[in-house]
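Entry 14. Ran structure prediction on the chain below.
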Amino acid sequence: MAVTRPNGALVFSWTPACPVGLLIVSFGGDAWIVQSDSNRILPPVRYGQKPGGAQIETSGPVLLSGDICVVSVSRWYTGGFYRQAGVQTFTY
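Output, structure tokens:
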């Protein structure tokens, strides 16, 4: 997992750049959750923007400087379950 901030935008990517079915950015009790039931989410993903082929399950709260966050990506498997493929803690 990689977290970058080009031009102030928060961007998530992972290697290999395979499609995933779930991306979660969480901090405290809040989260931004993006989901696809057929692994359609490809990197890079910009915080707050819906990637093609996915739906936003919960909208992302405003992040403040110093917030400690966790981003994770998971693959969707037949039968409706997800397996975590990557995770990264970062400070906004």
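The mean pLDDT is 93. Will compare against last week's run tomorrow.
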